[in-house]
Amino acid sequence: QVQLVESGGGLVQAGGSLRLSCVASEKIFNKNVMGWYRQAPGKQREFVASVSWDGSLTYRDYVSGRFTVSSDNAKNTLFLQMNNLKPEDTAGYYCAAIPRTSAWGQGTQVTVSS
């Protein structure tokens, strides 16, 4: 049973923008903190941003001011608007509840060319 489905990744030039989406099952999404993570080749998966049920936002310092996390609670959907993308943002992007309550989804690949 697929519980997390990420989409919206792609290839973009440095300075460009992408908007990622994550549709989660209601069991995962409901009243949980939902977050975005990313994993670059050869590196560990790392936290990027999160939004709580009451709308509180948290960002990793290196994306603050460039990325915006949001959610549509009625549709169990999480978003990540990424602006001014840099080559170092290249990674697979994944969403999950925090703390994680399910297997990872397949992720969506973001590639930023210089």
How do the strands and helices of this protein lay out in sequence?
Elements: E1 4-7, E2 10-13, E3 18-24, H1 26-29, E4 33-39, E5 46-51, E6 57-59, E7 67-72, E8 77-82, E9 91-98, E10 108-113
Parallel strand pairs: 2-10
Antiparallel strand pairs: 1-3, 3-8, 4-5, 4-9, 5-6, 7-8, 9-10
Question: Would you give an account of this structure?
Answer:
This protein has 1 helix and 10 strands; from the N terminus they run βββαβββββββ. Strand 7 (67-72) and strand 8 (77-82) form a beta hairpin. It is globular, with a radius of gyration of 13 Å. With 114 residues, it is mainly beta. The termini are far apart. The mean pLDDT is 94.
Secondary-structure-derived class: mainly beta
| Biggest sheet: strand arrangement | 2-10-9-4-5-6
Please bin the fraction of helical residues.
Answer: under 10%
Instruction: Give the topology string: H per helix, E per strand.
Output: EEEHEEEEEEE
Q: What ranges have pLDDT less than 50 throughout 5 or more consecutive residues?
A: none
Strand content: over 45%
Largest sheet: 6 strands, mixed
Distance between the termini: 38 Å
Q: Using DSSP, what is the number of strands?
A: 10
Rg on CA atoms, Å: 13 Å
The number of helical runs is: 1
Q: Mean pLDDT score, rounded?
A: 94
Mass-distribution shape: globular
What's the short story on this structure?
The chain has 114 residues and is mainly β. Helix content is 4%, strand content 50%.
List keywords for this structure.
114 residues; mainly beta; 4-stranded antiparallel beta sheet; 4% helix; 10 strands
